[in-house]
Amino acid sequence: MTDQTGSVKKKHLARSAEHQHLSAGCSPQEAELEAERRRYRDIIEASPSALILVGPDGGIVLVNRATERLFGYSRDELLGNPVEMLIPTSVRTGHKKYRKSYFAEPQPRIMGQGRDLYGLSKNGEEVPIEVGLTPIQMPNGIHALSAIIDLTRRKQAEDALALQADELARSNAELEQFAYVASHDLQEPLRMVRSYTELMQKRLPDDLDASARKAMKYVVEGAERMQLLIDDLLLYSRVGRADLAIDRVDVNAVVDHVINLVSVSLAEQPGACITRDELPTIRASESMLVQLFQNLIFNGLKFHGEEPARVHVSCKELKDRWDFSVQDNGIGIDAKYAERIFQVFQRLHERERYPGTGIGLAIAKRIVERHGGEIGFKCKVGKRGTRFYFKLPKDPAGRRGGSHETAVETD
């Protein structure tokens, strides 16, 4: 390390002595000009990006140390040679045409936008790069300054991320397939259990003791609950697997249809009501939109307090999306459960008080994410009522799964 440091110092002192010698025989103006040139050279050499100055004939006029490091050539090997020596052979002919068109209309630009660019190193390896071009006026005409960034590490990170995303998508697909097959295959034995227990219940002797009848009742109720769980699990799986049939959908008609679907729940609550604003026509899957509003509206009807349930649906249009809102006056949700309530089979309350499978909001989230949107809820601390909101893009791309974080807002 000491020998290297000494060598660098000697070179620096020698260069300084040379500059002083040259300056001694120059006028003050020439000395100042030479000092200015040295400053510019130092700036160019200090750049972390590879800098290459190319003349109108395609010859390399200037390079810096970063260029030597990136491509593996020495300065002497590069200067005077055509810049195409740094271009992969498969695209050299096209690059010559591109270079000529650039010098015909020189202006600052990013080279090859929307395409992957590669440079060719001395050892024959193709290096992913990003190139910015700037025209420079020189005494002998326009030159092009290329600022080149090595994208090797970025590409490696992107490839690793893409591989992880593929593995995650494959894992999710396998999990969905397993859930679908498992729940589908459970249907037949469950139907058999239900049929025989119901038959046994009908044939029980009248003098059977109360505890035996109670036990049989639990068997029947357990089988019915299992059927509900399987049905909801199949629905959850289908939402993730089904093709997204995008069409123009009148959301007014969707909400009115849902109100009819939940009419029994409304009738069981005197004074309960569902209202809506004028809603837009959007691009979405109609069947999934019905399921989404049904789950959110039914959630508001179910989790009401002492007062009759009131649910209101509204929408706000933004530049590139629709912001829907389903507001209720129910028991509210603690913000700490923001993620949990959208997970499969997660419940915050006793089943005896609020029956259900605990999968409705998970299905709602999956539907929103299949449309490329996001869902969350807003609650007022210390007050009743919850506002579920979901954002749907005006041009839904459609997704197989979703990994969006759930948003929650508190006042």
Automatic annotation (TrEMBL):
Its EC number is 2.7.13.3. The keyword Kinase applies. The keyword Transferase applies. Residues 113-163 form the PAC domain. GO terms for biological process: regulation of DNA-templated transcription. One of its GO terms (molecular function) is phosphorelay sensor kinase activity. Keywords: Kinase, Phosphoprotein, Transferase. It is an enzyme of class 2 (transferase). It holds the Pfam family HATPase_c. InterPro entries: HATPase_C_sf, HATPase_dom, His_kinase_dom, HisK_dim/P_dom, HisK_dim/P_sf, PAS, PAS-assoc_C, PAS-like_dom_sf. It catalyses: ATP + protein L-histidine = ADP + protein N-phospho-L-histidine. One of its GO terms (cellular component) is plasma membrane. This is histidine kinase.
